[in-house]
Amino acid sequence: MGISWEKVGRAVADAAPIIGSLAAGPAGGAVGALIAQRLGTASDPEAVLEAMKSDPDALLKIRQLEHDERESVRNWQTMTLQAELADVASARAAHKDHWMPSVLTVILGLMVVVLGYGLFASPIPAENKDMAVYIFGSIVTLFSSAVTYWIGTSRSSYNKDKLLGLPGQ
Fold it and tell me: Are the C-beta atoms of residues 57 and 33 closer than 8 Å to each other?
């Protein structure tokens, strides 16, 4: 697989953080085309990275692009955020009143209890301690995300809208 616009975004993030974050996101192709045009290269991530390596002023040009196109960049940021929020809303709508989120939350809660008990009840070999901490931390993070689903603002907003009988609920 070739180089992605995400890699270009990471490469320009220090000089032009907004352009970098947009190039690494869903609008990567469009932002990448603007970067390529500014650098006078083909609209291809590999060509852009090569131009950045060979032209010492490339990052200055990209920073200037961010400054010149700040209104467009803000619009892209807004569109990216709206797309991400729509994705979350779509997932919530697709799974509303489904049993699976509650079952997953219960399973994750049980996993946290069992793993927590295991961490305190039996010694962990020294060579496995890092892995145990990593796994336990991952499970706790997933569990906290599941709990946030149920008590977070999105869930309370969903319940409020449902109680009020608002459309789409």
Answer: no
Instruction: Write out the residue range of the structural domain in which residue 49 sits.
Output: 5-81
Gap between the Cα atoms of 161 and 166, Å rounded: 5
Tokens 């803000």 correspond to 74
Q: How many domains does the chain have?
A: 2
Determine the angle formed by the axes of helices 153-164 and 129-151, rounding to 10 degrees.
Answer: 20
Residues 109, 41 within the same domain: no
Residue-wise pLDDT tens digits, 110-156: 999 998 898 889 898 899 889 988 999 999 999 988 887 776 555 55
DSSP single-letter state for residue 103: H
Token representation of residue 123: 């010694």
Total-model pTM: 0.46
Structure tokens at 113: 């209890």
**Do 48 and 32 form a contact (C-beta atoms < 8 A)?**
yes
